[in-house]
Amino acid sequence: MSPSTPTRRSRLLTIYAALVFAFIYLPIVILILYSFNRDGVGGFPPRHFTFEWYRQLFADGPIWDSVLNSLIVAAGSVVLSLTLGLLAALALDRANFPGKALFRRLVLLPLILPGIITGLSLLMFAVVSGVQLSLFTVFLGHGTALISVATTELFAGLQKMDRAQEEASLDLGATPWQTFWRVTLPNLKLSLIAAGLLIFTLSMDEIAVTFFLIGRDNTLPLEIWGRLRRGITPEINAVSTLIFAVSVGLIVIWYRVRTRGLGADAQELLERP
Amino acid sequence: MYSRAYKTIVSLPPLLWVGVFLLLPYALMFAHSFWAVRDGTVVHQWNLNNYHTLFSKPVYLEVLLRTMRIAASVTLCSLLLGYPLAYYLSFHSGARKELLYQLVIVPLWVSYLVRGYAWKTILGSEGVLNGFLQYLHLTHEPVSFLLYSPFAVVLMLTHIYTPFVFLPIYAALEHIPRPLVEASQDLGAGSAQTFLRVIFPLSIPGLVAGATFAFVLSLGDFLAPLLVGGASSTMISNVVQSLFGAALDWPLGAAISVCIVIVIISLLFLTERLEKRWSFK
Amino acid sequence: MSFAIANPQSLDTATPAVLLEVRDVAKRFGAREVLKSISLNIAPGEFLTLLGESGSGKTTLLRLIAGFEQPTAGEIWMSGERLDALPPYKRRVNTVFQNYALFPHLSVRDNVAYGLRVKSTPASEIGGRVDHALRMVKMEEFADSRPSKLSGGQQQRVALARALVNRPQLLLLDEPLSALDANLRKQMQGELKTLQRELGITFLFVTHDQDEAMALSDRIALLRGGALEQVASGREIYAHPTTAYTAQFIGQTNLLRAEVRDGVAVCGALQWPAEGESGAAVFSLRPEAIQLASAGISIPGTVHFRAAMQQQFYSGASELLEVTCAGGQLLRVRVPAQGPLFGEHDFVFAAADAIRVQE
Predict the structure, then answer these.
(1) Mutate to test the interface with A, among C29, C70, C86 (most CBs of A within 10 A)
(2) Domains of chain B
(3) Superfamily of domain A62-271
């Protein structure tokens, strides 16, 4: 860039950017800070440090039940949407069938439409077909809605892949099935990991669709939601802090994978929310 | 190169699944909007009464307009925060660029609910902000207008969607070839002229994409009003939700949903054309 | 913070023979020293080429003059004005960028008008100057096209017009022809040269292509590892390279490692009279300086030797031979096309053509 003597304008810009960062991070910092405040949420400044809220949190049965439920749903959704998403991506990349354009748009709809629309549609479908709402319906909802994410990521991965590798494999005598396992899948490894992590995180955090499909057993966001309706307690700060820590942990893992695996184009996967 | 069997094996399962678990439910939603409800049960009697109700009762239009106003405010605020941030990172952050970029990304992975909850604890009348104001002796009574207002909804959604808006703008700015900026300077333009004549026009596709994100996502939101908004900031999705819940009028709720979908899809159609108009490959 | 008045050399640089003076300019990026104290003068109306391999610092020098980088040390002066203190948009220097850097969102006309508009030139004047510039590069019929619709050669012309319309004192060209295919390249070289002669504008041209440098330039400044290796006309550099590197970089050559003693250089079986210090020395002998000879005839000042054919590369009007002489020394010889040659032959070169160069 040009002679980079900091002008007044660029100093103002720097200050503005710092303020935006403060806006983005301040709520999160406050949330974490107050999870250690003996006097609870509110008041200023936080005065007495305590682990009390974490102690209460760890003794809180329903929360941990809901965490387990969320983990089960998220894991199931990853398997379901990765499998179908992989097939869908292969189909979009390599097959021609009637209604392909419609199919491509349809798969992406849950990503575009507000969660409430997808959630309610699935609710009506469950009611009409007489299915009891339960964690299973939540899993079906997440798994189906998140096929969109898997398809997008894996389709992008396939497009970047060198088709000649598969041709070479077939040329060397491998069957299509062997070629799929030995060439296609390993090539997609990073896209699969990226999509899996993204789907897992999105499912763990999902409320809008879950809201309408939930039965008796709550997922973690729904459990928190229910408690919020009754008022705020520092225990929620504590659990939010833990969720934040786990999110950051996942990001770090993702970067490890990325820096070990691949260069710049994986960046793009992460950029997509 | 791929056999018929291969193509069938890969396309059939997702086609069937998406047909049954997405197409059918959406179609059901669409069908419901033309049905009626009698004595609390849905009767499959095709009619346009739901749409008629929507357009004849001003309350629905009012809520829809308020929703659009809130969504537009969120979009504007996120742009005002996100664009300068993206510009700063892309052109003026020097060696810290990569780190700062990650710092913007991290909140994207942090739960929507957690961030909404944080605002609730900050804005409440017993909240952190009020405590802070009283601590500074700026106020003696708690300020209560902060929480449960459209302002709180806009604030919370802006907080959530600023990183979403940032991303496409940043990507667009990063894709501007740096020689273009140098060429502009070389031809005699200072930094303000270069921004207005080269950088800004070339970032418009990213700007449009970011604005679309923020607008569409806020438009369909029903959790923020429940969490921090209160009755004065009921949005259109809250109406849908109550029609499916307490009011038990699924057909009317479905009709509103269909309208939301139409609004969103026409908007996407429009912005896609805008993005195309302003992208030069 | 300049001490322009106290500049001792400004007396002789004030003479019109120097447009641009680069004075002891050095540039480092972190620990990497890209330019090591370069000094170079450019005369008004001159076509000077910075030639070098990638990483030699030629593009960095250009960017320092354009103002996209700041020198770590040294000064740059143009027409009695200190240039390196000015931001790029205040310099009367324009650049033709390597990949043209045409603004994709503006039409050809608006691209060319850009420099005039940002300097608030009256609208009445802009139209005429833009049209004239476009006519000059024969692009007037494309005035309303977008750059993406143009071929590489056409984009090249627009980039030229966009720079020239500002009437710069000095035009910088950063490998402007490198993106074009070979035929178009030749054609554009001709047009560039004609344009430069007609307009009388000083050109500073960067390339890694020695043929291009030779074909176009009044003078060539050869850069190597951030330092100037030799600055002279193409003919001078070819005929009298000062270093082994220059001799090899510009054209092909045979480098003969010889021992000089008592006015005679000895390299294996070859011997020729040589002036200068005694001891180990390197000589450059161009392949075309060696010719096939008939056995037995000897002219004073020439060196005869017998060598065995190894390889023969035919290239139309001439062919290149690789031969080994008695001591095992491999020599390249360029001769008019001969037809296949086998076995041993007699060769001859003039002793004066063996140029003593620095290692």
Answers:
(1) C70
(2) 51-277 (1.10.3720.10)
(3) MetI-like (1.10.3720.10)
